[in-house]
Amino acid sequence: MNPSQFLQLLPIDSQSPQKRIIHVCHQLPFEITYQGSEEKWSFLPRRGHSAMHAGIRSLNGDQWRTLVIGGAGKIHISPEAGLKDTVSPPWLCGQEKDRLVNQLLEDHNCIPLLLDSESAAGHYDGYCKTMLWPLFNYIIWNDATDGRLERQQWDAYCKVNQAYADMLVEQYTEGDTIWVHDYHLLLVPMMIRNKLPNARIGLFVHASFPSSEIFRCLPKRQEILKGMMGANLVGFQTYANARHFISTCTRVLGYESTPDGVDCDGHFCYVGTFPIGIDAESIDAQRSSPGVLPKIKAIAEMYTGKKILVGRDKLDLVKEVLQKLAAFEKFLTNYPEWRNKVVLIQVTDSTTAESAKLEHKVSEAAAHINGTFGSLEFTPVHHYHHHIQPDEYYALLSIADAAVLTAVRDGMNTTSLEYVMCQEENHGPLILSELAGTAGSMGSALLVNPWDYAGVAKAINDALVMSEEEKATRHMQLLRQVKSNTASFWAHSFVKSLNYTMALSDMNNYTPLLNNESLLASYKKANKRLLCFDYDGTITPICKTPGAAVPPPDMLRALETLCNDAKNEVWIISGRDEAGLDNWLGHLPGLGLSAEHGSFIKYPHTSKWINLAEHCDMNWKHDVLEIFTYYTERTTGSFIEHKRCAITWHYRLADPDYGAFQAKECQNHLEGAILSKMPVEILVGKKNLEVRPISVNKGEVVNRLLVQQQQEDGGFDFCLSCGDDRTDEDMFKTMSKAESIPSQDVFSIKVGIEGKKTRARWYLPTVKAVIQTMQAMASVSASASVNESL
């Protein structure tokens, strides 16, 4: 989903009342400190995620107001208080807790979630950082364990996600928009959906998202994906991440998908791309602040006559500072004319316990370069492993001759955007990894493969010898991108797109959800009822192999009760063959069966199948079989199902993308070679293609039943048909034309997502919902039977 395609369709209504957006974040945007005095609590901006929080702040205005729910994190204690820093300290209860909550809510529109130390550690340091974060960045775990630690961390992840969801539900009011942020809270959307079915929920994943081959390594892959699918809109930084998510849902969960999103058991989850930006005005003000200029002069005096390369990275396996240093060493080796003329200032921050090991390796690599190419007067690499102050940071970005940002995998590194803002005067080139999240929108940067040391070395040389005219042209293009795609634009785009998806769902909702009260009222008063059900995908979940679709026990019990009601004539009208229907449903004598989409029929209380297609020409089957065989041989996982009056090609077990492609090719082949010559039609089902005689369909069976009843006993006064795919549209069409039955007593029901165009008058989202409706009707029949016996 590209928001630029439709945002212009959603103008801001300045007259509409202010609406609320509730943000659910892993942490609040503030560090909390207990003062131990009259001013009990103080709040300072938290390091990290500055772009996200800038976007959230930008939504506060005439149209929206925001509320942020987030973890309190580590609560700091001022020295005057005489206590220890801790997470959720035991003394924080009662009045102190109320005072903290009230002060945050009144001053900053925030509500803190206070977690115990064990849950916080198991959630963030455990599952998030040891399981999800490495996997999302294409790092597979090396340590094999017995799974106990992983189970504990998963339990903590679920517990904390549930705590966030519960707090949001407490704060939610009708009409609120919910926005969940990042991979720490991937289960929250579905947890909220379970309690607030009609809520408007958005999820934005700030991290990268791996391909399905990587993601399927996660033991809890299905739970994570289903948690995310509770959202109406899932947003990612790049198109590749969005595409990976859709593909993963298709391959891991078996869901149907389109380029716009994923169909999840009757709920369509839209997927979109929303590259985050920075608060350009704030960055511009900070780089121009009085404290920056003196530091620029100090750095210039320290490195007089030298070209300055700058890098700032978190010290982890994703940023791969070691590779950057190896590339810089390659640069000094391949371009000896730059020795003693170029310095690399590399700033790193610690993020995990593993950072100490990496810092040691980085220091060794820097020492090696300095020992090889340095001297008493010159040190080529300056490595600073600590958090630098904003004034120092902006001074460094402003004076640099080039920035070298070569992460091997990244969600969205805003350092590159901040560098562009700080280079309005110098126009220094940006050397950026093509694997970074910002690479897709920074086409005027020098894009490099971080694994190609010689290529990075060449890019450094190209940046240093670049003409002033080319520098200015490249910088102008980058600056235009940064200033137009800000954090505010990102946040507003996502919220407007979320509103759009809700409006789109309403527009596409051609068919209302079944009104059970209306259905049961008509059912109770009727004297003669016709109930027609499809099998696969309607009363039994669709399975990957046809033979695995065993009828659920609760469905069979309800079906038997319906058949035992003398007022009912119950039919299963399926694409299955006679043997399959007899095997699973033949033990119900009062049930009518129709096989192969109406080709065969067996009336209730009989054992004989009647061939309704015996006079049809079947000479077409040989030609169709040849075509199906051709595509079966070339599509691994596909197979042919032979029926007496039809042939079906299944590709549910094939690769989802390739299977769909081959099905389209096969359909085109059939249409060109078969349809124009023979009296058959092609049915496009769920992961299958079927060819059958054109004179045979489910609608003909329903029409046969309606006519027979009209001739024999005055007709039906209640009709219900229920199905999930295109083959059932014939049933819906025939019932809609039944003039002898009042329209309010005809219930044609489509099973599946509400946005599908259909002739049915109602829809139910899932097989489970169909069974529940059957049970409700069966309960009415059972009650009536008891009353009659009394």
From TrEMBL:
<dbReference type="InterPro" id="IPR001830">
    <property type="entry name" value="Glyco_trans_20"/>
</dbReference>
<protein>
    <submittedName>
        <fullName>Glycosyltransferase family 20 protein</fullName>
    </submittedName>
</protein>
<comment type="similarity">
    <text>In the C-terminal section; belongs to the trehalose phosphatase family.</text>
</comment>
<dbReference type="InterPro" id="IPR003337">
    <property type="entry name" value="Trehalose_PPase"/>
</dbReference>
<dbReference type="Pfam" id="PF02358">
    <property type="entry name" value="Trehalose_PPase"/>
</dbReference>
<dbReference type="InterPro" id="IPR036412">
    <property type="entry name" value="HAD-like_sf"/>
</dbReference>
<dbReference type="InterPro" id="IPR006379">
    <property type="entry name" value="HAD-SF_hydro_IIB"/>
</dbReference>
<comment type="similarity">
    <text>In the N-terminal section; belongs to the glycosyltransferase 20 family.</text>
</comment>
<dbReference type="Pfam" id="PF00982">
    <property type="entry name" value="Glyco_transf_20"/>
</dbReference>
<dbReference type="InterPro" id="IPR023214">
    <property type="entry name" value="HAD_sf"/>
</dbReference>
